[in-house]
Amino acid sequence: MDKKLPFTKNQAEKIMQDNPTPFYIYDENGIRESARKLTEAFSWSEGFRNFFAVKATPNPHILKIMKEEGFGTDCSSMPELVLSEKIGIVGENIMFTSNDTPREEFRKAVELGAIINLDDITHIRMLKEAAGIPGIICFRYNPGPLKAGNIIIGNPVEAKYGLTREQIFEAYKLMKLEGVRRFGIHTMVVSNMLDEEYLIDTARMLFKLAVEIHEEIGIKFEFINLGGGIGIPHKPGDKPVDMSKLSEGIKDAYEKIIVPAGLHPVKIFMECGRFITGPNGYLVAKIRHVARKYKNFVGLDATMANLMRPALYGAYHHITVLGKKGEAKTLVCDVTGSLCENNDKFAIDRELPQVKEGDTLVIHDVGAHGHAMGFQYNGKLRSAELLMKPDGSIRRIRRPETIDDYFATLDFSGI
Ligand SMILES: *Cc1c(COP(=O)(O)O)cnc(C)c1O
């Protein structure tokens, strides 16, 4: 079984005539479908909203699609705030979920009217000094030993994010004393999670905490933000998250915990990035060399500088060789890039059909945290990003970097 592509080999060849590999290509139809799947799953929840995590795919054309789908943005840096502003997502359509935050970013977020989601109790003072306490405030909760995490985000006890249970009660008390009247609460303890039960359990945990805080401190929550982290199937055969099961489970928890405590109506927010764009982005590269050493190596014109997830997390990304559908996968190889760095691999011991120089490979599920994590180590330049429109036309939404871009920050004077 193989994974589906939104374009045929012929279409890909045409695209490659105008756009040298490597490049990223995003499928607008697929992105909109994922966005609607999420929105529809939570249509029972009045005011449900996804704040797309800008860091997943920070491109204005992608964010414009998010805006059209009714999403806000989740920002965590100055450039992300500015990007959001530039496409007209401002005010409480921005969730500012930063950590180790510089003051000027607090200032900018407050200036834009964003919802500020504080990561630490000491940030209250910093926010107050930088910009004053806004009328609505949210805190990020870290359950510590009460919840297990996964490889990307780590064990909550080891995680740098969020307030402890004790701190979070204290924080809302302080905010109430400051005269804040509008509140939200947030958590994100896991990333790329495919288990609906785990995600439902996180909602249950946060609902219970909201009720406890409400009862102890006497504040009412306007929203409960469950963060991002809904996973996508990377391997053929992985089961996608059953969105109706997830939605039903969260609805059940809402009705059992929120409603009896008198907290209804409270809006449910999410910050999903990967679920929306992840499966709808592809890295297209060509084979530069096939080398047979102690192992077989298939060397591409892309490197881990274009996609670092396999090297960083050992992530599996499926690879399709264009035009070899149905051929037996008799070549066991490592798929590598050209960095002078031995973990520059897209796949290890992967079974592929027999390949040769010039064949085109498509690396799947890179639409989120893919291009965005790119870097320039070893003088490797970031690739172009293309958008495949619903009518099949192609729009280049980011040009490839040039050597001049690479040199732009250097000072050659007096050399
Ligand atoms: C990265 C991040 C997200 C998005 O995570 P996905 O796995 O893309 O859904 C959401 N919220 C916060 C705070 C994040 O750091």
Largest sheet: 9 strands, mixed
Cα Rg: 23 Å
By DSSP, the count of extended strands is 17
User: Roughly what fraction of the amino acids lie in strands?
Assistant: 15-25%
CATH topology of the largest domain: TIM Barrel
Question: How would you name the CATH homologous superfamily of the largest domain?
Answer: Alanine racemase
What would the principal axes of the Cα set say about the shape? globular
Give the CATH architecture of the largest domain.
Alpha-Beta Barrel
Uncertain segments: none
Number of helices: 12
Given the helix and strand composition, which structural class is it?
alpha/beta
The oligomeric state is single chain
Number of domains: 2
Could you give the distance between the termini? 57 Å
Query: In CATH's first tier, which class of the largest domain applies?
Result: Alpha Beta
Bound molecules: pyridoxal-5'-phosphate
Q: Helix proportion of residues, in percent? A: 25-40%
Average of per-residue pLDDT values: 96
SSE order: HEHEHEHEHEHEHEHEHEHEEHEEEEEEH
